[in-house]
Design brief:
2 copies of one chain form a homodimer. By secondary structure, chain A is an alpha/beta fold. The first copy, chain A, contains 10 helices and 11 strands. Chain A has one domain: NAD(P)-binding Rossmann-like Domain (Rossmann fold, 3-Layer(aba) Sandwich). Chain A is globular, with a radius of gyration of 16 Å. Chain A starts with a strand and ends with a strand.
Chain lengths: 213, 213
């Protein structure tokens, strides 16, 4: 499958590398492809690099691995016609570092970044997931407790969720909870304040939640 | 030990019964003691019932098991002089049902109910805990996965947290994570939107989170 991945940070690279490892074709979208190509080359990865619009046009499935505060702008640069009808795996979190640490959220409670993206691009099929775990766990969940922990997913489009679920399973995810429509992003983005504090408390980002029942 | 418990709902009764079972003396504080005494009598429980002020004066340790929206008002009725210097186990959540289901929070993100209570009553030693699990689990955590799941706690006063931690352990809690000062209530109250959705999804309130690492 062909993927367009927005963002060249830790998350974007982890997702891109894992997708290529699994035999997919990936183009990373970035603000400045020549600069990013240099950076990615130095990591000896053979990924394609393009503009956000090129990556969006290339991908059959898209991945939002940008900072939450930049996500809407990036998707605008990607261009609505390049996005229309495609599934977007939205990993971004609406973290607001402007008020110091630990970060707060710039949208929360009665709205979410996932919903903002879905409203701004009605033709996109936004699937919010992976935003509650650290990048290495996103793409290789079985390195923690043999995969015995949960991932949350939500979105309005059932077929898009099935597609994304298949990708997540290929990453190694065993327990994926589909919470329902995209408004559930309010709940999963709201975990971040706890996640950040646990990260500080536990001294590691290699953790996740398991629901005991 | 003597406890003053505010609230005659499921949480207040579960806590009161468990404390009495463990040999403590409990007075439940309520808006209308005569009405509540009748209700509690019908449940064949031998608990003392008084006004919020009487329960506050009676307790060496206090428990806020009221609805979040009523908490500050209840504590005002309890009277600052009856509260001063005492530990308050704050179980209330700032749930807002006015916008429909699932509920949102009436304070969140950059503030919390725990902090609001601490600011309103500086002489109280607010310890936020137990607000992330259902009442039966609060007082008997080992009925789920033999206690192999986590409880969060936070508050500004170290001695008050030690006292509360001892009570929680006597309830059966094995894994209590002290997140730090009361501002961490922002993070633990923010779990509620996810909790409510999981409750709907799983069809049971008898669940809790275990942190896998």
């Amino acid at each position: 499958m062909k993927f367009g991945v927005f963002g060249t940070g830790m998350v974007g690279l982890a997702i891109s590398n894992r997708l290529e490892e699994l035999g997919h074709e990936v183009m990373i979208g970035t603000r400045d492809p020549s600069k990013s190509a240099e950076k990615l080359k130095s990591k000896k990865k053979a990924v394609k690099v393009g503009t956000f619009a090129q990556a969006a046009a290339f991908g059959e499935v898209l991945v939002n691995a940008t900072h939450g505060a930049a996500s809407i702008e990036v998707l605008k640069m990607a261009g609505e016609t390049n996005l229309d009808g495609k599934a977007l795996v939205d990993i971004a979190n609406p973290l607001d570092f402007s008020k110091g640490m630990p970060p707060s959220l710039f949208v929360s409670n009665t709205d979410s970044l996932g919903e903002q993206i879905q409203r701004a691009f009605p033709g996109l099929k936004v699937v919010k997931t992976l935003n509650t775990v650290t990048a290495p766990l996103m793409v290789n969940p079985r390195q923690l407790a043999e995969g015995d922990h949960q991932l949350f997913m939500c979105g309005n489009d059932v077929v898009a969720k099935e597609t994304v679920c298949g990708i997540l399973k290929s990453f190694g995810w065993l327990n994926i909870i589909d919470l329902g429509d995209i408004s559930n992003a309010r709940a999963t983005e709201a975990i971040l304040p706890l996640w950040v504090r646990l990260y500080g408390k536990l001294g590691t980002a290699m953790f996740n939640f398991k629901i005991m029942q």
